[in-house]
Amino acid sequence: MALFVRLLALALALALGPAATLAGPAKSPYQLVLQHSRLRGRQHGPNVCAVQKVIGTNRKYFTNCKQWYQRKICGKSTVISYECCPGYEKVPGEKGCPAALPLSNLYETLGVVGSTTTQLYTDRTDKLRPEMEGPGSFTIFAPSNEAWASLSAEVLDSLVSNVNIELLNALRYHMVNRRVLTDELKHGMTLTSMYQNSNIQIHHYPNGIVTVNCARLLKADHHATNGVVHLIDKVISTITNNIQQIIEIEDTFETLRAAVAASGLNTMLEGNGQYTLLAPTNEAFEKIPTETLNRILGDPEALRDLLNNHILKSAMCAEAIVAGLSVETLEGTTLEVGCSGDMLTINGKAIISNKDILATNGVIHYIDELLIPDSAKTLFELAAESDVSTAIDLFRQAGLGTHLSGSERLTLLAPLNSVFKDGTPPINAHTRNLLRNHIIKDQLASKYLYHGQTLETLGGKKLRVFVYRNSLCIENSCIAAHDKRGRYGTLFMMDRVLTPPMGTVMDVLKGDNRFSTLVAAIQSAGLTETLTREGVYTVFAPTNEAFRALPPKEQINLKTAKELANILKYHIGDEILVSGGIGALVRLKSLQGDKLEVSLKNNVVSVNKEPVAEPDIMATNGVVHVITSILQPPFNRPQERGDELADSALEIFKQASAFSRVRSSPAPVFLSCSPGLS
Fold first, then answer.
1. Measured on CA atoms in the order 204, 208, 214, 215, is the torsion positive or negative?
2. In order of start, what are the domains of the chain with their CATH numbers?
3. Is 449 left (phi over 0), alpha (psi -120 to 50) or beta?
4. Contact at 8 Å (CB) between 551 and 630?
5. CB-CB contact of 365 with 355 (8 Å)
6. Mean pLDDT of all residues belonging to the chain
7. What is the CB-side half-sphere exposure of residue 603 using CA atoms within 13 A?
8. Considering the entire predicted model, what is its pTM?
9. DSSP β-ladder status, 76-84 and 48-54
10. 3-class SS of residue 636
11. 276 near 350, Cβ under 8 Å?
12. Gene Ontology cellular component (predicted)?
């Protein structure tokens, strides 16, 4: 029976895998970073941790893998030092830190972790030292000596002038009436302090940083006989106001205060939760053009989007930022938050003027520049920040500016600046009409476009959508960058000027003198109706010169209607393929049945390795690409015809040889493989 139980346990362990047998409780981010620091320090002996110190400062960090290789904190270079991991000490003559620190009471432990100033102030009160030395179970978040030294003289004077009230209360606020280790410090939790049961805010970030009221945990989990000590880098103070109350009392938020009231967000900002408000100052609002600011303030939806773009979904203390990271706002956009030395940056700009103003429901950072989301901008404003300024100037000169700054639901197809490197077209009736056909009468999103969809323009044209493996095109022009979706309009940045279709394929060919021979050939071959009716064709159209350049023998082959139709059908693909949809190589089936090899290299389109002279002449039932040679179907190419005959002869010879071997060979013998040889 005992054997059966052991076998059953082994079977379960194997079924569940090694994780089930070896995994203990999940480690917190702080513990994982500490573990990495131990691994980096182990060559120096037991219980040695690698620590990164920012050059020129006293700031130290346990290192994670990314920081270890980058050797930078907030863009500043670091040096690696090796110290005893928390809870251990050196022994003379021995390598590393083999000895565990002796356990003593909280008061004595303060001195061990480097918080002797906290000891000193504890001594000044009448009650606190006996409590720290007596029975019980407490947690103290002890400010480092440097943290006390950084307090202003005014604050220190107010504390030490009334030690049994102000100083005692301040120290008690750093204490919790139970033992709390780092694995219990969860992101967004609150602990009840020993000062009037006031809350202490805890944040435990994925990068291993732990903050206590936005003060960073420097050394954690120093056990004492009556509790635990965590060393922090700031003296923390009680939090009394919520975010909305701070907005109400700060003079620098006068415009923000009015905007919040108009948007109705004040209810959220005074309620429960943990938010980060990137609070624009009056100065930030003053930097915005008056017309733009008045438009947003007068538009409830745009205003709400603007304010939501300044609110992060969780509390983010400055101490948690040691490198760049992406954070999502309530509006749904992504901000790049980083740091450069002591300065926080947003989208690469050092616009935070005051940081870590704590509220009961989050944290506030003052910013001196508005973060206007795309969803609150006009098409003009979207384009001003994009690589389409030349196109926008053309729209303005053509008198279409009101469409781009108004409240019409539109999509603007704006060619990139690089499209106009050889100059811009003159503004005339043709150009105005062309530009009107770059404005779609609906606000679109590219992710909802589908192959074959038609879009109506302000100019009255119907434009088609073509979806290819690696590109999304509207007629001959393909989308070159992600959409920018504004308040009423969406901006598509396009890789070329769009040319709407002007008649059928036959209309295009008949209207161009270069194709008179081709038109006559199409009529002779009976293909006129095919290229006139509705359809989706890609026509590689040989010019008159291409026909004249044919060798006499191949001209003779075009004399019969059947041969002529066969060759012309080989020039017609059975789907629409514009140059932007080609990629490296596309095999396009022709109406003749064989496939055409269409490629794009160095911005030159080729078909069967023959360069296309002019691509993308759009028609209502297809697209025309101009070529200067006649494409021969595989069976019509003389060399290939000879090759086919040779291949056929070779195949017949192989089959005859195989048959001969079968007739002359003895009966088959079947062999079995020996073990290990199979």
1. positive
2. 33-99 (no CATH), 105-232 (2.30.180.10), 256-375 (2.30.180.10), 377-494 (2.30.180.10), 505-627 (2.30.180.10)
3. beta
4. no
5. yes
6. 89
7. 2
8. 0.80
9. antiparallel
10. helix
11. no
12. extracellular matrix; extracellular space
Residue 665 clears pLDDT 50, i.e. is over it: no
Average pLDDT on 79-91 reads 94
- The pLDDT of 454-472, averaged and rounded, is 96
CB-side neighbour CA atoms (13 Å) of 218: 20
DSSP secondary structure string, 389-454? HHHHHHHHHTT-HHHHHSS--EEEEEE-GGGGTT-----SHHHHHHHHTTEESS---GGG--TT-E
How far apart are alpha carbons 499 and 115 in whole angstroms? Answer: 74
Dist CA 626 CA 612 (whole Å): 6
Q: For residue range 402-444, what is the model confidence (pLDDT) as tens digits? A: 999 999 999 999 999 999 999 999 999 999 999 999 999 999 9
Q: What is the dihedral of CA 239, 243, 247, 248, to 10 degrees?
A: -80
**b (16+ CB within 10 A) / e for 401-426:** eebbbeebebbbbbbbeebbeeeeee
Write out pLDDT tens, residues 478-499.
Answer: 999 999 999 999 999 999 999 9
**Strand bridging mode 410-415 / 489-494:** parallel
Single out the residue of 274, 265, 272, 276 nearest to residue 301, CA to CA. 265
Extract the tokens encoding 318.
């400055």
- In 3D, which of 99, 80, 79, 96 has the Cα closest to residue 88? 99
How far apart CA 601 and CA 365 sit, in angstroms, is 51
The number of residues making up the chain comes to 678
Of 309, 494, 341, which Cα lies nearest the Cα of 420? 494
List % helix, strand, coil for the chain (3-state, nearest 5): 35, 25, 35
Q: Helix 389-397 vs helix 429-436: angle between axes, to the nearest 10 degrees?
A: 120
Helix H or strand E segment including 1? none
Closest C-alpha among 594, 605, 588, 617 to residue 468: 588
Residue 377: CB atoms within 10 Å = 26
Task: Please give the full DSSP string across 475-508, using - where no structure is assigned.
Answer: TTEEB-S--EE-SSEEEEEESS------S-HHHH
Amino acid, single-letter form, for residue 445: A
Mean pLDDT confidence for 631-638: 73
208, 37 contact by CB (below 8 A): no
Has residue 643 got a pLDDT over 50?
Answer: no
| Greater model confidence, 583 or 355 | 355
